[in-house]
Amino acid sequence: MAKQILILYPDTFIWITPAKGLLYNTKKFTIKEFRITRNVLSLCERLMGNNRIRRVEINTDTLFDDEKQFMKLIISNKFGYISLPEENVRTVQNGHRPAPGLSQDKTGRNTRDILRYFSDLTIYIGGECEQTEFYKQTFYPYHSVSCLSAIDIIDFLNRIETPYLRHIHIILSDLYGKSNLSLLISWLLHTRDLITFYIPHSLTKKSFIYNTLKNLGFSVKIICRGREDTARSIREFIQLSRKYDRQGPDFHFLVTNNSEFKYFNLLVSDHFPSAGKVIPVYSHNLRFIKEKIFRNKSELHPEKVTKRQIRIHQSLNPNFFGSLTLMPDKYIYSNVNCPPLGNMQEPIREIISRELENNYAWKLIRNASPCCHCKYQWICPPPNNYEFVIGKTDLCYESALTPGRYTYG
After folding, report:
1. Domain ranges of the chain
2. Are 388 and 377 in contact, with CB atoms under 8 Å apart?
3. Are 339 and 355 in contact (CB under 8 A)?
4. How far from each other are the two terminal CA atoms of the chain, in whole angstroms?
5. Does the 3-83 domain belong in CATH 3.30.9?
6. pLDDT in tens, 259-280
7. Global confidence as pTM
């Protein structure tokens, strides 16, 4: 009885590179590396197969030591099991499936209403403020001479009315004109559950903005450069705002070095541990960003990545998918680090179609070098804005100087 069948469990994924391979179980979140030899490579290729059938017939009398060791790794860690040839074995797949919701016909065209994919809208109203490019990494006021008027925004929202839109982020840069802001707020009241306003800390001195928005039931986040010289005014504002809101304000502190990071983490833990957020931003400070944002494989091992998440990572980018951004110049982007998709006067379906055709951000996955050669390719979090602004295609300690491909124009 030398012939047996080695079968991988449905929740097991196997990936190989020239030197090493990886086994990962999405149910038990077990992860094991193994060394690739000629014999193990042959066994892996047979396991994966052209049709991704995850079983292979073996003869235990002719197995080499490295193959036996590989089989022991699989069975002892419950990545798979041994069955007899005559047993009825259900085959499963380890394939690359389309992401949920991306239905396609035989020509590859999307068959569902593409408005379903559009779920998140960001509007940068514009105005005069500090001139930085932090808006390319996170929500941050955008400096511009011109602004989107309330009439422009209302007209745009009227034309894109869709039941699938779940969230609208509105970023203010300056006072925006009290009458203009009042008109916009009045129109948005019926959709306030969808709206989050982001206002710079400098505007909190004009307390009517924060208090008005909070009293009307809007979600409000205050964006602040995490400099220690702003801490006093922040503490004063916290005391003032708690007269109107017991929980206090929701701050986003943007920090660029370790001193700011430690200081504002302490401030958050003291005053609003459930609402405050400290966000590292890139400003030619790669060493700091590597320390706070980059990952190595030891940090990936505790990650609990589900089978569904792996399928999504193989098909689309959850950081960007479904999101559109309207800028003060009236152009629309799937990501502000990418080329524009069109003007706000154009039909929204055409805008979405261009993104799906050009693949700027929504389906940007880790299929470029060096990630495509890495066994952690689909366990690693998907590409994000840090990679755009740094000019890299990964956030990996092992390849900190890898040149990027996410450039357009």
Report:
1. 3-83, 114-360
2. no
3. no
4. 64
5. no
6. 999 988 888 887 766 678 899 9
7. 0.85
